[in-house]
Design a protein that fits this description.
Radius of gyration: 29 Å
Structural class: alpha/beta
Number of helices: 17
Strand order of the largest sheet: 12-13-16-17-18-19-20-21
Helix content: 10-25%
Strand content: 15-25%
Largest sheet: 8 strands, parallel, barrel
C-alpha cells in the first residue's frame, strides 16, 4: 500500500470512530436514565460530588492527551457494562459528571485512538483500562491473552506487538471503585519523629502477621492484622519509631510468575498509585480497603510509630512492548512512558521493561498528586522511592536539578515528610549514592558493604569502616546535609536475611523457578565454615555471635538505622536472596523463632540497644563530628588502636581487624527544645573482627579514669553480664569476633 493510501485509510478510520462516538454521545444515558453532564476537569479521578441543582453523583476526569475519544464504562454487580462517552475535553482532560453514581460503583475506561506502534501509539478500545487515579481496585490481574493490546501469541513474535488484539478484556481485568471522601483525620496525632531519633523497621504487610499467633486468623496478612494490638506490641517493645511498608499500591503479578504458579509477593509491580492493594484487606475490596488502611495508620500513630511507604513510581506493571495493556499504555503510551528512538521500544532504566517519563507534566502531576493523597488523605508520614535515580533523570542523564526533585523541594506538603531515596537505577550513570540534595535521606549501600566485609574479614584496612560508623561524612557532609542523610543497614528485603548472611555464602534461589540465575552473586556473606544450617554447636555459637556483632554495629552507628522484620529474631529464608515471589513460609515471619536457642537473647539485645540509643543523644547526633580537640584535651570523636593510642594516618592504611571508637558526650552540637546545651555520657566501642582474642588497652586520661561494661557480644545473654568496671590504661581482653561497648564512668577534668 502506498504512503498516500495509508494516510487515507488512517483518515477514514478516524472519521468512522468520530461518527460512532458522536452517535453514542447523543444517546448516552447514565444508570437511571440521566444524561452525562459536562462536569469538571479537576480533580482527576472519580470524585463523589453534589452537582448542579443539588444532584448527587460522581465526577470523572481522565488525562489522555493524544486520544480521539474516551468512554467511561460502569459495571453493575453482575458485570454488565454500560458505556458512557466523556464528550468534554479541557486541556487534554476528558471529563463528565454522572448523576446517581456513588461510592462502590465499579468502573474503567476505553480510550480510542490510532494503533501505530511504530510511532508509539497503542490505543485499543477493546481493552478496559484502570483509571490511574482510582482509589480502590476490585479484582485480580490474571493476564490471559485478552488483556494484551497486541496479539500475544502471534506466530512471529518479533512483530507480535504490532498486531492489534480486538478481543474484549473487560471480563478479565479488575475495575476501579468510586470511594467516598469522608475522613478529615481530626482525631489522628502524627508522631513526627525527628530524623535523628528515627529507627526504621522494614516489613511486609502480609508476611509480618501471616503466622502471628496473637492475631486472629481472619486478620492475618492484612492491614487490620498489622493494626492488631498483638502486632503493634512487638513494634513498641522493640523500640522502632517507623515501619517502612513494602509496596502497598495496587500491583499486578508478572505473567512469567503466574505461569509457574507463583506471584509477585513483594509488590514492586505497581499499577494503581492511589489504591491500597486490595489483597491486603480483610474487610472487602469495593472501597473498604481504604478505610481499613486508614485505621491501620491511626493504630500505629497512636503507638507512636510512623508509617513510611515503599513506592514504585519508576515503572509500572505494563512492562515493555510485549507486556499487557492495563492502564497507562492504553491511555496514552507516548505521554506516560519513555520511548527509544525506535518508538516501538521502551527506554528501560529499571530492568522491568519500562520507565515512566517523569519529565512530562502529566506524569509528574500523577506522581505528586499520588504522594500528596497518601499524606493528606491516607495519613502516611513519608516515602522510600524505589530506584529513585530513574525519577531524577531529565531527558536521559540523572540530574539533581530535575523537575521531579525541584517539584518535591518546593511542595508545601511533600517537603515536610520523610523522603528516602534508593539512590540508583540500572541505567548508565544511575549509581548516585551521596548525590541527592538536602531534604533527602538515602539508603547507604556503602555502609552495608563495609560492615559486612569487616565482619567477614574482607576489609584490607579500617578506613571505610570508620567513615560508615561515624555517619559517612565523606558522602553526606555537603550542602547542609546531616548524618541522618544516611540510612544505615546491613540487610534489606532484597538479599540475605541477617541469619542467612552468616549461614550461606551462595544464594539458593531454586524455588523461584529461574535456575538459580536470579538474585545477586555479590552477597559479601560468610557461612562460618559450613554452608547452610548445621547441628555443629561451635558453628552455631559463632553464627549467633556474628548476628550480635552485625546488629550492634548498626545500632551504634551514627545515622538512621534500618532493621528488617524478623532479623531481631534470626529469621531465615533458607538462603534465598531474592524471595520476591515466595508468598509462603519462606517469605513470612516465623513467630516461634524466639523458642530456638539464642534467638530470644538476640531479640533482648536488640531491644536493649534500641533503648540505649533512645536514652543517649550521643548515639543520635544531629551534626557530623569535627574530630577537633577541645580545651579539655578531648575530641568529640576519637579512634584508637588496640595499643590504646590514637590512630595515625599510617594506622588507617595498615591491615587491621580491631578498631576503637570513642564518642564524647561532653559537647554535642545543637541545643535542646529549651535552648539548653546538650550533654551526655561518653562511650567507647571496640570492634574486633579477628578470630583470636585481642589485648586492647583502654585509653586513660584525659579520655577516662574508668569504664563500665554495657555490652559484650561475646556473651550470649547480656542480662546476665556483671556490671564490670575497668580502669583507664587497663588491658581488656576482647574475645575474637566481638564488640565491647563501655560507658565512660570517670573523666579527667583537664588535660595535664
Amino acid at each position: 500500500m502506498s504512503s498516500a493510501a495509508e494516510q487515507e485509510a488512517v483518515r477514514a478510520e478516524r472519521e468512522a470512530v468520530r461518527a460512532e462516538q458522536e452517535a453514542v454521545r447523543r444517546h448516552a444515558r447514565a444508570p437511571g436514565g440521566a444524561a452525562v453532564w459536562p462536569g469538571a476537569p479537576t480533580p482527576l479521578g472519580a470524585r463523589v460530588r453534589v452537582g448542579p441543582g443539588g444532584v448527587a453523583g460522581t465526577n470523572f476526569a481522565l488525562w489522555a492527551g493524544g486520544a480521539e475519544a474516551v468512554e467511561l464504562c460502569l459495571f453493575d454487580g453482575n458485570g454488565t457494562e454500560t458505556r458512557l462517552p466523556l464528550a468534554e475535553l479541557t486541556h487534554e482532560i476528558w471529563h463528565g459528571f454522572v448523576p446517581g453514581v456513588g461510592p462502590g460503583q465499579r468502573y474503567g475506561y476505553r480510550v480510542h485512538g490510532r494503533w501505530d506502534p511504530w510511532t508509539g501509539a497503542r490505543w485499543n478500545p477493546a481493552k478496559l483500562l484502570l483509571d490511574p487515579y482510582a482509589r480502590a481496585v476490585d479484582g485480580d490481574f490474571s493476564l490471559p491473552p485478552e488483556v494484551y493490546g497486541h496479539v500475544r501469541d502471534w506466530p512471529q513474535q518479533h512483530v507480535a506487538d504490532t498486531v492489534r488484539d480486538e478481543r474484549d478484556s473487560a471480563p478479565y481485568v479488575p475495575k476501579g471503585v468510586v470511594v467516598q471522601d469522608d475522613d478529615d483525620w481530626a482525631d489522628d496525632r502524627r508522631p513526627k519523629t525527628p530524623w535523628p531519633d528515627s529507627v526504621i523497621y522494614e516489613l511486609h504487610v502480609r508476611g509480618f502477621t501471616m503466622r502471628h499467633p496473637g492475631v486472629p486468623e481472619r486478620l492475618r496478612g492484612t492491614y487490620a492484622g498489622l493494626a492488631h494490638p498483638a502486632a503493634v506490641e512487638h513494634l513498641v517493645r522493640l523500640g522502632v519509631t517507623a515501619v517502612e511498608l513494602l509496596p502497598v499500591h495496587q500491583f499486578a503479578h508478572e505473567d512469567h510468575l503466574l505461569r509457574r504458579g507463583l506471584s509477585n509477593y513483594w509488590g514492586y509491580n505497581s499499577i494503581g498509585y492511589f489504591a491500597p492493594h486490595a489483597g491486603y484487606a480483610a474487610s472487602g475490596t469495593t472501597g473498604q480497603q481504604v478505610g481499613e488502611f486508614k485505621r491501620m495508620v491511626r493504630a500505629l500513630h497512636a503507638a507512636g510509630i510512623e508509617v513510611i511507604l515503599d513506592v514504585v513510581y519508576n515503572h509500572t506493571a505494563e512492562a515493555g512492548e510485549l507486556g499487557p495493556t492495563l492502564s497507562l499504555k492504553g491511555i496514552d503510551n507516548r505521554g506516560y512512558y519513555r520511548l527509544q528512538s525506535d518508538a516501538r521500544r521502551y527506554a528501560d532504566y529499571t530492568g522491568c521493561g519500562n520507565t515512566l517519563h517523569v519529565v512530562r507534566p502529566q506524569v509528574l502531576r500523577l506522581i505528586t498528586d499520588s504522594l500528596r493523597y497518601w499524606v493528606t488523605e491516607m495519613g502516611v508520614d513519608g516515602f522510600r522511592f524505589d530506584l529513585a535515580a530513574a525519577l531524577a533523570r531529565s531527558m536521559h542523564d540523572v540530574d539533581m536539578l530535575s523537575p521531579f526533585l525541584a517539584v518535591i523541594a518546593q511542595d508545601p506538603v511533600l517537603r515536610r515528610v520523610k523522603l528516602i531515596a534508593e539512590p540508583w537505577d540500572v541505567g548508565n550513570g544511575g549509581y548516585q549514592v551521596g548525590s541527592f540534595p538536602p531534604l533527602w535521606t538515602e539508603w547507604n549501600d556503602r555502609y552495608r558493604d563495609a560492615v559486612r566485609d569487616f565482619w567477614r574479614g574482607a576489609l584490607p584496612d579500617v578506613r571505610d569502616l570508620g567513615y560508615r560508623l561515624s555517619g559517612s561524612s565523606d558522602l553526606y557532609a555537603w550542602g547542609g546535609r546531616r548524618p541522618y542523610a544516611s540510612v544505615n543497614f546491613v540487610t534489606a528485603h532484597d538479599g540475605f536475611t541477617l541469619r542467612d548472611l552468616v549461614t550461606y555464602e551462595r544464594k539458593h534461589n531454586e524455588a523461584n523457578g529461574e535456575g538459580n540465575r536470579d538474585g545477586t552473586d555479590d552477597n559479601r556473606s560468610w557461612n562460618c565454615g559450613v554452608e547452610g544450617e548445621t547441628d555443629d554447636p561451635a558453628v552455631n555459637t559463632l553464627r549467633r555471635r556474628q548476628l550480635r556483632n552485625l546488629m550492634t554495629s548498626v545500632l551504634l552507628s551514627t545515622g538512621v538505622p534500618m532493621l528488617v522484620a524478623g532479623d531481631e529474631m534470626g529469621r531465615t529464608q533458607g538462603g534465598n536472596n531474592n524471595a520476591y515471589c515466595q508468598d509462603n513460609e519462606t517469605g513470612w515471619l516465623d513467630w516461634t523463632l524466639p523458642e530456638e536457642p539464642g534467638r530470644a537473647q538476640l531479640l533482648a539485645l536488640t531491644r536493649r540497644l534500641l533503648a540505649l540509643r533512645h536514652r543517649h543523644p550521643v548515639l543520635r547526633r544531629r551534626a557530623f563530628f569535627s574530630g577537633r580537640q577541645g580545651a579539655d584535651g578531648l575530641r568529640d570523636l576519637a579512634w584508637f588502636t588496640a595499643a590504646g593510642t590514637e590512630m595515625t594516618e599510617a594506622d588507617w592504611y595498615a591491615p587491621a581487624a580491631t578498631l576503637g571508637l570513642y564518642l564524647s558526650g561532653r559537647d554535642i552540637p545543637g541545643r535542646d527544645a529549651r535552648g539548653e546545651r546538650i550533654t551526655d555520657d561518653s562511650f567507647l566501642a571496640v570492634l574486633h573482627a579477628g578470630p583470636e582474642p585481642v589485648a586492647f588497652r583502654l585509653p586513660g586520661a584525659p579520655w577516662a579514669e574508668s569504664y563500665e561494661l554495657v555490652v559484650d557480644t561475646a556473651r550470649e545473654d547480656q542480662e546476665a553480664a556483671p556490671a564490670t568496671v575497668h580502669r583507664g590504661g587497663e588491658v581488656l581482653t576482647v574475645a575474637g569476633r566481638s564488640v565491647v561497648l563501655l560507658r565512660v564512668a570517670g573523666v579527667q577534668e583537664s588535660c595535664t
